[in-house]
Each structure stands twice: as C-alpha cells, then as structure tokens.
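testing teh design pipeline on a random one, pls ignore if ur not involved
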C-alpha cells in the first residue's frame, strides 16, 4: 500500500496536468493517458478524480490499450471503470 504523502503527490501531479494542458485525455507515447496510467498503478482516488473530470474510458494509446485493459490486475479499479461506462 502506498503511503498517503506519495498518493497526495500523484494526485497533485494529475491536477497539474489537467490545469496546465486543459485536458485529462492528453496522451503520451508510453503510458497512453493519465487514466490508463492510474488504472494500471491501481490509484483508485486518481482514477475517480479523472473520471469525474471526464476522462475517456475508451481511449486507446500507449502500452496499456484502454484503461480497462490497463486495470486488468486490479479488480477494484476495473470495476470502477466498468461502472463508469
């Protein structure tokens, strides 16, 4: 389990990306987008924040495919994403 301070840093980074780039769906070559990366890492709070901000669950990019595919190792995150469809 990740320590709370580290989780806060991740959340602040996501918020900063959103503010600086005006979108939660910004894609990178490796990770895809923030939702895919957060889903793969199992960061439930970040996944929920991105969903609340309108992140595209069906976006495909990077090594993870979609966010649902990225969350394949984390049943709770996968369920969050399926519920948000």
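output:
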């Amino acid at each position: 389990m990740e320590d709370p301070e580290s989780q806060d840093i991740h959340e602040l980074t996501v918020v900063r990306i959103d503010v600086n780039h005006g979108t939660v769906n910004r894609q990178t070559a490796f990770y895809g987008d923030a939702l895919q990366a957060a889903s793969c890492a199992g960061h439930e709070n970040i996944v929920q924040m991105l969903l609340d901000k309108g992140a595209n669950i069906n976006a495909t990019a990077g090594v993870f495919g979609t966010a649902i595919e990225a969350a394949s190792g984390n049943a709770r995150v996968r369920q969050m994403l399926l519920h948000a469809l």
